[in-house]
């Protein structure tokens, strides 16, 4: 009843005992479990410990692919990070590979025409800010809509920021995800300074 009517949530099963809760969790692999502490045939606390200890590999990999770190998954699930890493390692490599490929994708802004590759685009703008280009931290994750997003975290003195780009793999283009990235991309314009030359007097 607590979850009835909540947008984006649907109840997949209800258990009357701790043992039944563990069995149904193995069957349905839910994202959220609400458990009473006192239940027949095994307490809710014991059932939760069993459920979290049996976090399926595909769930671990899905969470890592969505952007979580192995440490975050371990902390949330109560599972040792060493076990998480067994399944997280190939996904972390996948994220690194996608981020590297996206750096060669061409940037598409509101003008509509793809411009230079993202790596060059970021370098040109960060150079204007005096940022350390070698210190840019690249990462990638797959968002809930299935689209890969690439992030570039930068530091320029006391200033820092993170740009977020949606990576269209078939088109090999990236577009800003949020307003901050759009402002960074379209507001940090490259300006050619032309010295003022006084007009000659007649």
Explain what the structure shows.
- The protein has helices at 18-28, 44-53, 57-65, 70-77, 81-102, 118-129, 179-187; strands at residues 106-107, 137-142, 148-156, 159-168, 173-176.
- It is built from seven helices and five strands, in the order H-H-H-H-H-E-H-E-E-E-E-H.
- The chain is α+β, with helices and mostly antiparallel strands.
- The protein is elongated.
- A five-stranded mixed β-sheet has the order 1-5-4-3-2.
- The model is unreliable at 189-195 (pLDDT under 50).
In short:
The protein is of the alpha+beta class and 202 residues long. The protein has seven helices and five strands, in the order αααααβαββββα.
List the helices and strands and how they pair.
Elements: H1 18-28, H2 44-53, H3 57-65, H4 70-77, H5 81-102, E1 106-107, H6 118-129, E2 137-142, E3 148-156, E4 159-168, E5 173-176, H7 179-187
Helix pairs in contact: 1-2, 3-5, 4-5
The biggest beta sheet is recorded as: 5 strands, mixed
Broad shape:
elongated
Q: From the helix content, strand content and strand pairing, which structural class follows?
A: alpha+beta
Please give the count of helices.
Answer: 7
Low-confidence blocks of residues: 189-195
The largest beta-sheet arranges its strands as 1-5-4-3-2
**Tally of DSSP β-strands:** 5
